[in-house]
Amino acid sequence: MLRTSTRLAAVAVLSVLSVVAFVVDRPAAQGQGGVTALTGVRIIDGTGRAPIEQGTIVIGNGRITAAGASSSVQVPAGATRVDLSGKTVMPGMVNAHAHPQNQTKTMPMRGDITRRLRMYANYGVTTAVSLGQVSDEETAEVVKLRDEQDRPGPGLDRARVYTSGPSIRGLKTVDEVRKTVDRYVDMMKVDRIKTHVTPQMTPDQYAALIDEGHKRGLRVNAHIFSLAEAKMVFDRGVDVIAHSIRDQDVPASFAADLKRRNIGYIPTLTRDLSVFVYESTPAFLKDPFFLKGMSVYGEQVKLVTDPTFQEKVRNDKNAQSIKQALEQANRNLKILSDAGVTIGMGTDSGTDEGRWPGYFEQVEIEMMAKAGMSPMQVIVAATSGAATVSKLDQVGTIAPGKAADLLVLDANPLQDIRNTRQINSVWIAGRRLGASGTN
Ligand SMILES: [Zn+2]
After folding, report:
1. What is the distance in A from the centroid of ligand 1 to the CA of 378?
2. Which CATH architecture has domain 93-163+242-395?
């Protein structure tokens, strides 16, 4: 079926979507008192520790209550046992730089954002941290979804979401900057701050923005391009460098500074890929694993395969210059990872053309591995690293007390990072979704 469909033109592929789409909403497995035990499974806990080859995870009330070697974990009487022999479990992935946005104008905002969050989950991304909404109205919808996810109820069938609201940029005075941050916190109820570093704002204004964010208890994420921009916000107390440094090698001294201050670094390699890759039709648009997302991706596939769009990309000097910037980003990721800086996986997916929520996180981690990180380092960056960068305490590792957000795989990703595509099942808050990458 899939082989046949890959031979078809992209437009024709749209017509077979329903056949290759993810199946969702299989009811959760739950035993007496709602306790579930996953047994016989290889556990990669997300901290970077060596895996446990024969492990058991006990889940109750949406949380992990015990996890460890099967010989040391007692399964409560009456628990539903799920035998996962031969499988590998890792924490659900955390995307530290996402954009769950309303991009389909013909659909209600909430429904569109929700199906995008569900698509993240289908691909194993169980938390999406939004570093930018397009409007206050959209922010309000995402904040509602965020607040609903922790309420008792039937269980989540989508990625958890957090949001900065629209990026704060282009303001004129320090006073305006502080008032804007206050409005975001008090009126919009955002849980983090995002800013773009541009020449329109002065270093003093960035200092005020970061200071006000901290006074209100929020982390501040900065969109940068150059080393100078990264240093400017670093010197003013920023928490997260939300894109790669892409103009030159990061000097060892600055890498050491980032590590010392525990500043998070989000490479967003696929963001840069997306800027130039649609100069022609990339092979991945016919990847069966990509086609599983077509219910959401379809509209934009039409756009990025349009010859006029592709010609525009070919003739765009900026788009072409990003090729070199991406090579620089790859080099800096290796430098910073080797220096021990906390790397958080992030993609910029969900905004602009051809940045696929779900699929691109899978591409991102493959690119991180190609940049020179080990599969274990990549897994850490996509789980606990991204959670640390995003200051989310409940996700990113497999340990008692953490949310039972899990990615069960048919193959071991420590052998090949692409094995994160061999999805057996995805669990959110102890509930198993029906997504399957293998059947
Ligand atoms: Zn972004």
Report:
1. 20
2. Alpha-Beta Barrel (3.20)
Check: pTM over 0.85? Answer yes or no.
yes
φ, ψ for residue 373 (rounded to 5)?
-80, 150
Which CATH number does 22-92+396-439 carry?
Answer: 2.30.40.10
Contact between residue 92 and residue 126 where contact means Cβ atoms under 8 Å apart: yes
The closest of 352, 376, 348, 353 to 363, measured between CA atoms, is 348
Contact assessment for residue 123 and residue 78, using Cβ atoms and an 8 Å cutoff: no
Closest to 124 in 3D by CA, of 431, 402, 421? 421
What's the 99 CA to ligand 1 centre distance in angstroms? 6
- Taking only the tens place, the pLDDT of each residue in 187-243 is 999 999 999 999 999 999 999 999 999 999 999 999 999 999 999 999 999 999 999
pLDDT tens-digit series, residues 251-269? 999 999 999 999 999 999 9
Give distance in angstroms: CA of 97 to centre of ligand 1.
Answer: 6
CA of 246 to the centre of ligand 1 (A): 15
Q: How far is the centre of ligand 1, averaged over its atoms, from the C-alpha of 234 (Å)? A: 18
Delimit the domains of the chain by residue range: 22-92+396-439, 93-163+242-395
